[in-house]
Amino acid sequence: MTFNSSDSFEVLPGVAVLETVDRILLLNLNDREAAQTPVVLQNESNEIWKLVAEGSDFKGILEVLAQEYSTTPRMIVSDVTALIRHLLTHGFIRRANA
Amino acid sequence: MLDQTTFRQDEAVSLAHALSAYVASANSLRALSIKGFTLEMYGLRSKRVHADADVWVHPDDFDDFVETMHLYGWEARFQRFTPRLIPNHSITLAHQNWPCDIDVHWFFPGCFAPADKVFDVFWRHTRKVSVNQVSHTVPDKTAAALIGLLHSARHPFDPSKQREANQICNEIMMDSAVRPELVQGLAAEVGATVAIQQFLGKMGINIAEEQLAEAVDLRRTWDAHTDMLESGTTAVWLRLIQQAPFRQKWRLIVKAAFPTHAEIETLKGRRVSRREARGYRRERFAVALKRLPHTVWNLLRYRGVSLKSTEVTHQTLGDNMLHRGTRR
C-alpha cells in the first residue's frame, strides 16, 4: 500500500481518541476484538497521528515531520507509510479522498 | 512506534467510559456515565485517579448491557453472597487487559423510590458531551451534584467523603444555575431527601417536621445501612443470623465464618493451598472479632430494622439483583 502526495485521511466514527500530556491512545470501538486493548502512540507516532487527524495530506505530513526532526521527507517516508498503513488496516482512519 | 502494553489506570478509566457509552448508544440502551467522571467535569470534585468507571444503566437494559460488555471481554467479578439491608446496587465488570473495573449500577443507594422510576427521573436530567471523540450521556450538574452527595452520604464517618460533600455543597451555593432548591426538588422526586438531609441543612434547606415524621422508617433503614457499611459484613451476617429461624441459625453461622475453599479461590482469582485458605479464614475471623463491639452496639441500636425492609421499596428488581453478583 503506497500513498500519493495528495492523499489525506480522516478518523473513523467509533474510534475513541484519548490525548494525554505525552501520548495518544486509540480504541477502535467498532471492532470487539480491537476494543480489547487500546493502541498507544508516543513520540513521533503521536506527531504523525495529529497531522493525520487534522486532515493534512501525505506530502504535508512528510514535510512537517521532516522539518520538525531536521531530516528529509525521503528519510522518514517508510516509517510514516508504515504507521498510516497500520492505522488504516486496523480501522482507525480511512482515506478522505477515496 | 506503537505500544500495546503500557496502559495506565487513569487512561483506562477514561476509555472504559467511552466504551460503555459506545456500547449503550450502539445498542439503544440507556446508560449514564456517573460519579468521578462527571463530578470533575462540573468542578464538583478535585481531579484524581479513579479505580473504576461508574456507569448507571436503566434496570430494564441492565442484562443487555452486561451481556454486550461480555462480548467485549468484560466479565462480572465474583462477589461472595452477603446479606444486605439495601440490595447490592451494582456489579463490577473486569477485563484481563484493563487496569480498571467498570461498576455497573442498576440503582443508587439512598434513592428510595422504585429503581426504574429513579432512573427515569435522572434520565430527564441528562445531556450529551463528547469526550475522547465519543458521545457520552451524563447527568446535568444538578443531578451530578445529587449523585455526589448520595455517594458521600453512604459514608457519614469517612472524613474524606464528608469533605467531598462539603465541596459539592459550596459549589452548588456559589453557582446561580444550580440552586440548592433544585437539588432538593430532584432528591424529593427520587426519594432521596432522607439520605441527603444533613447536606441540604448545610445549604440552608431544612426539611419540614411532618415530612421527617413520615419518613422515620426510611431514616432508620438508611442510618442502619450506613452504620453497617462502617461495621463491615460482620454486622449484616449477625443481623441475618439474629432474624433467622432457630433451625437455620447454625447453618448461617457456618456459612458466615467459614467460606468454602472454592469461594476463597474465586475471591482471590487464583488457586490457593489448604494452608492459605486456613490463613484467610483466620484473618477473617480476627477482623470479625475486632468489629464485634461496634457491631453489637449497632444491632441493639437498630433492633427494629429488618433485613427485608427494602424489598418493598426496591420491589422492581428485589432479590434477583441482590444475588446477581454471585453469578460468574
Q: Please, could you describe this protein's structure?
A:
- The complex is a heterodimer of chains A (98) and B (328).
- Chain A is an alpha+beta fold and 98 residues long.
- Chain A is 41% helix and 21% strand.
- Chain A contains 3 helices and 5 strands; from the N terminus they run ββββαααβ.
- In chain A, helix 1 (43-54) packs antiparallel against helix 2 (58-68) and helix 2 (58-68) crosses helix 3 (73-89).
- Chain B is α+β, with helices and mostly antiparallel strands.
- Classes of the chains: A alpha+beta (98), B alpha+beta (328).
- The interface between A and B is medium-sized, with 26 and 21 residues.
Can you lay out the helices and strands and say which pair or pack?
The complex is a heterodimer of chains A (98) and B (328).
Chain A: E1 9-11, E2 15-19, E3 23-28, E4 39-42, H1 43-54, H2 58-68, H3 73-89, E5 93-95
Antiparallel strand pairs in A: 1-5, 2-3, 3-4
Chain B: E1 2-3, H1 9-26, E2 31-34, H2 36-41, E3 52-57, H3 62-71, E4 75-76, E5 90-94, E6 101-105, H4 115-123, E7 126-131, E8 134-139, H5 141-153, H6 159-174, H7 180-189, H8 197-202, H9 209-214, H10 216-231, H11 233-243, H12 246-257, H13 261-268, H14 274-301, H15 310-313, H16 318-322
Parallel strand pairs in B: 3-6
Antiparallel strand pairs in B: 2-3, 4-5, 5-6, 7-8
Helix pairs in contact in B: 5-6, 5-7, 10-14, 11-12, 11-14
Q: State the shape of chain B.
A: globular
The fraction of residues in strands of chain A falls at 15-25%
- How would you write the strand order of the largest sheet of chain A? 2-3-4
**Biggest sheet: strand arrangement of chain B:** 2-3-6-5-4
Structural class of chain A, by secondary structure, is alpha+beta
Helicity of chain A, as a percent range: 40-55%
